[in-house]
Amino acid sequence: MDLGMNSTPTTAGRNKKDKHVWTPIEDASLVEALNELCVGGYWKVDNGFRSGYLGQLEKAMEQKLPGCGLKAVPHIESRVKTLKKQTLAISDMLTNSSGFAWNDEEKMVVCEKQVFDDWVKVHNSAKGLRNKPFPHYDTLVEVFGKDRANGKGAEGPAEVIEDLTDNSTFNFEGDGLDDINFSSPTTQTPICPPSTRPNKRARNDNWSQSMADMASTLRSFVDVTKTHLETVKCVLMSENATSERRGKIVDELQKIQGLSDMDVIDAAAAIISDDAKIDLLFTLPDNLKIQWVKKLLHQY
User: Fold this and answer.
1) Which residue in 271, 241, 243, 244 sits closest to 256, CA to CA?
2) 94 within 8 A of 198, measured Cβ to Cβ
3) Cβ-count burial of 290 within 10 angstroms (0-12 exposed, 13-18 middle, 19+ buried)?
4) For the Myb/SANT-like domain, which residue ranges apply (predicted)?
5) CA distances from 93 to 123, 140, 162, 199 (A)
6) Please, are residues 213 and 221 in contact by the beta-carbon 8 Å criterion?
7) What's the pLDDT at 24?
């Protein structure tokens, strides 16, 4: 008599039944469907997606791949979480550590093995992502970024990656490790130049350069302004000196021997409106001054 068996499936049996081997075509279709939900605007919200979005993804997958049999739960839900976890892990490596680079041609993270091994010791979610093609990374960065939710749509890759580090987007249970994905064999790929990394450092460098340019422009403006102020100062001082001399023209003319009162008046009238003549009156030696004044009187 069997006392310990019944017809209810075991947990292990259910897990084995729920496993699905995701093909590259299915992955591409799922990512496309996720992106369409974001573009549509309704399903994407600040903290992820509206309730019911998994059902929409199930319908979309059936339309794109008739007969695929992929259900919202557990297949699509688990796969979406896995994709998000991998996207977050990649962005974390690229933005929060040195030694990692993104090979945009092969769509994979590249780095030295020791660098990766040290990283994985602390960041288990990055396990297996070195030199592993992740072809939909660019699109998934957009999907999991917050800009689509609030309608900004103007952030660059670095800003979207920074959004990804905020775990407010999506909140699933389970580890999603039951999903299996066929991908091309991993190959050792030369590390791309650090300049290809969409990280914060580039934005910080750009910001620093902008501030340096602004400071240089400000210094130039101050220098030009200082020069103009010096010029204005000189002009004002010159005008002030001329103004003082203008008031002393008659006194200076009266010092010249041989001039009658009428000569003084006529000479003052000829000189007072011309700054150059005023300067000349006060700078000429006395022996030349009488000759110059007589010449003015003759012309006047």
Assistant:
1) 271
2) yes
3) middle
4) 22-117
5) 9, 16, 12, 9
6) no
7) 92
